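ENTRY TYPE: paired fold submission
RECORD: A
CONTENT: sequence, then structure tokens
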Amino acid sequence: MIINLVPEFLAVLASPDRNDAYHAYLDRHRAVLAQYWHNYVLDLERVATAALGLASSALEVDQELDVYLMVGVGAANVGELVVGGRGIAFVCVEHFTGYANPETFALGLDPALIPLWIAHVAGHLVRYCSPTSQAELRRLIAEGGGDYDCWELASRATLRELLLNEGVAVHAARTVLPGRNDEDYFGFSRRQFRRLREQEAFLMRAADADLDRSGLGLRLRYLTGGMTPAARQVMGRVLPERSGYYLGARMAEALVMEQGLPAAARAHASAFMAADARLGRGQAASA
């Protein structure tokens, strides 16, 4: 049997009151159309709500967070803000279309990654905003009037704190959305992730002298994509782009395993160093 709904839909478009006509059309075929939407249409608001709920539970969030779904006109795919002390995650939906669009600068990311990135950002926001957070970043944001300024923070926070901030966020994403390929949690290709694993010992040595220093250049070198090879050169070698995400996850790993994600998300940098020492690994010479 062929059931052709196209004439009915065209009649809706031709109706003088499209709104009423459309709702009548939905009511007539709700049993089928509701299943169609549930199974084949991505409801971003529902996906974001579920992801925020899972992240809030995993991180034991103790301050309400907001998630903004918006069009970012070609800027970041996701990110975090703090406005008046309130934590905000944003998701720019044009990047999650499944295919890249050079005209709009859309990245073409898999929509299934949205929960992963919401969890990642929630890890940041707990570190920035939780009343029980001991993170250096929380203090710096409070000193700045309760608003998030990534460039100001990059200039004042230590590299260690910036790396741990990303590392905790990676572990938050792994907890909320387990079972993905390792590279997905970092935003790397499989080849990039494999290269980082192969260079881990060198990366740790390269970062060691800078961990307790601050400066915008360090953030750009370790955490920002698009930097020139010259800007990423350390000890005569060029660091892979955004290598700090991998370093931060490794630096946060011991404390996450020892005390759990909620405690690690709120911990002072010294707690991560102590956990590494107890594991017999040591983050750096200064640890």
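RECORD: B
CONTENT: sequence, then structure tokens
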Amino acid sequence: MFDYSDKVIFEKITQYAVLKNKKILEIGCGYGRISTFIASEACSLIAIDPDQNAIENARKVISAVDFRVGTGENLAFSDNSFDLIIFTLSLHHQNSQKALKEAARTLKQGGKILVIEPTVEGEVEQVFAFLHNENIEIQEAQKSIANSNLSIIDSAVFKAKWEFSNKNDLIHSVFQYYNKPCQQDIAEQIINFLGKKIELKPIILQDTMIIQSLICVN
């Protein structure tokens, strides 16, 4: 499996925000795949994730980032701390209302919040939904943005791609992503959903995401 989305996400981040000379907080950094791109341009980067194992692994391989265990719902930072706050595919993984309020609190005056989220329409998202359906959480995150004291100043849907060498690679990769053993009934559902595409070599699936640029409304 080849996942091209990390680089595409970083390219989108640089289109919507200036990173140079900025103090940045990344929320939901996971193993730091996107963090390493951000750190190459930022003045300083603190990256948090609730998964302690992911943070420990990120610390071992990436030295330019201050990795910490934490969630967006309860940020351990003072008010007006960051020039830029980035949710990297993480807003829907937590209480999105609380996380947005905390982001607004810790954002400097004139700062910006970037939210990158999956959409429910993407092929990758629809395939993964057979194992773990996050549609409700994704939709709730968008409602939280709409009901917050933040204003969307820019927004765009964009695509990346995931490439699988063949059917077996795709099925194995999907279950491995969630660290689950392969279940034949679910595998058959995925195969039926993809139809003729499942026999292609390689198999290319579209990953569809949305990026939103937010500012605080006084």
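NOTES ON RECORD B: The chain is about 35% helix and 30% strand. The first strand starts at residue 2 and ends at 3.
STATUS: closed
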